[in-house]
Amino acid sequence: MNSTVVQNTTSFWEQGAFGQTLILGITIGEITKALLILIAGFIIARLVRRYLLNLSRSTKYVWIINEDTASTLHNLIVVITLVYAFDALGVTSFKIGGVNISNLLTAFLVFYFSYLLAKKSKDYMIMRSSTKNLPEVQVKAKLFYYTLVTLAFFIALNIAGFTGRLTTLLAAAGITGIVLGFASQTVVSNFISGIFMYFDKPLRIGDPVEVAGYSGIVHDIRILSTRIRTWDGLLVRIPNEKLFNSEIKNLQKYPARRVDIIVGIAYKEDAGKAIDVIKKTLDEMPYVLAEPEPLVFVDNLGDNSVNIAVRAWVPSEKWFDVRTQIVQRVKEALDREGIEIPFPQRVNWFAEPIRIKVEGEGES
User: What b/e string do you get for 230-268 counting C-beta neighbours within 10 Å, with b at 16 or more?
Assistant: First the structure.
């Protein structure tokens, strides 16, 4: 005897009184389900918002856990709750391209609110940073922004129901990426170099530098390029790839920097006396550091002078001013002591004597 087993596929919300139709084909069960979704969604949204607000008062990660983040997540949960409430009522039950419209709306909302959250967090992080740490914070903020947006994109694809098609999509994206990579390899190289510059930290905004044949103050550091204001007031944009592969001289990386000058005195002068005069002059200058001690010594015997090397350590931010003062004061001190600083001289020798004819005043 053949027996037929009938399975009851009716859902809980369609049984008994829940299955009765009220208006526009909407059943009591669908209305009840939508109301429960709304109540649960609003409660969860308020709890999440309250929790984040309380957490923002005690956490050190205020750049991401703050009032804006709490409001953004609260609004996201509320809007998604409304979408699924309408879906429970059958309003969004139709499909586009085989995908339920409610899933598409939810995916879009997740991506959009994640974008808002990433953008606000990036701006908040930059706004709260000091000028000294601004270059590092800018790169860190942009990395966080792009990472969160990328993750939100793939999560949105999964919510929309494209998980099965994701492999095909990634393959197409990979091919497109290869094509775009050849077309924009300079941009990618500058971007990667900018990331490496962030971890290497050879310079900061406001540092005096010599790099890529230019010398000046670092004006701005961006993800693709660095801008330098030269000493004569020009703005130079250097791609980060070129900057990363160049020798960088940071003239103010350390608190102290050495001044090196050469002072030439005549051969007839007493070198020891000149050294004592120079040392006394350096001791009287407040910005010349006592430790490391200044060094003054005979460096070499030049063509026209005895060359004395002067090496003095000074604060980096005062280097140029102190150097000019050292040159001026050493010159004045040597002049007061009557120590000659010779100018280049040449002795011309002729194989045969040169006869010079002097005409008399009375000749016409």
Answer: eeeeeebebbbbebbeeebebbbbeeebebeeebbbeee
